[in-house]
Input
Amino acid sequence: MPLERYIRQTIFPGIGEAGQQKLLAARILIVGCGALGTALANNLARAGIGHLTLIDRDFIELNNLQRQLLFDEEDLRRNLPKAIAAANKLRLINSEIEIVPLVEELNYENVEKLVAAADVILDGTDNFETRYLLNDVCVKLGKPWVYSGVIAAYGVTSTIVPGKTPCYRCLFPDPPPPGTTPTCDTGGIVGSIVGTIAAIAAGEALKLIVGNGKLNMGLLSIDLWQNTFDKLPIERPLPGCPCCDQHNFEYLEFAGERGSHSTTLCGRNAVQVTVRPAPKINLSELGQRLQSAGALHLEGNAYLLRFNLEGYDWTVFADARVIIKGTSEENSAKTLYARYIGF
Output
């Protein structure tokens, strides 16, 4: 394959022609095709990653266009799934690489197969559940991955190389309870932080594949609004970590007991989403955040909250269980849950 397209990379000593050949032979899995995922995919397709697999369960909505740079109004009119629309754009950018879009959810049933087939895995997700699952599988299979997250004007990223760097559970031993952290639908998001974090994470993927350059070990955090750049100096696995030290892959092995689960409620045009193990959430604090996010007819007591949001009738219980009325699509219900409650 001719290298003229990549001349600005090959004259960079850190990559060179030998490094570019490694990039062209590489296989990267991008989990999520939202803001981070589309920015990551854009960078890596242009850099000449030879095989990109994109997995996302969602479809395009109008508010995505503010920050999800591979989508446009025509994609919205066509009701395209995000993975398909992203792949269409990437093929226009670089027709010489292979792009595989998967319109499905990453879960314990498909994650090992997808991770095993990749050289590097990149996090473009919007929930803790998937990240803990990814961490388990990547550590189990010895696959490097790059964690990234953004909210408001703040972003974080960390490069995880099993056996060499801290894993995700070294940095975050347990997920926060649902309803205690903001999501992009409750805290907002500034598009420029997406590009900033995605650029760093994509650069980490290039370094991992080429095999040189200083990796971003520990946890890098950036707040563009406050103009702060901080680094958590944890650069080695933590002794006693249940995942990378003890090899206790509970988010993979007990996927039926942990994480989110959805059930269509027969005859009710409703879906119930549950989280296991069931945490307790502060309904009063959650109600205030949801009201700021546009929830209507909000009412509640010590046991549950009821409101209307995005045209659906919601009931949120203190054990983080939610019934969303107005849909029988389980994936749609889980997407709504992740947006407004957070896994």
Remarks:
- The chain has 13 helices and 14 strands.
- The longest helix spans residues 191-210.
- The two ends are 43 Å apart (CA to CA).
- The mean pLDDT is 91.
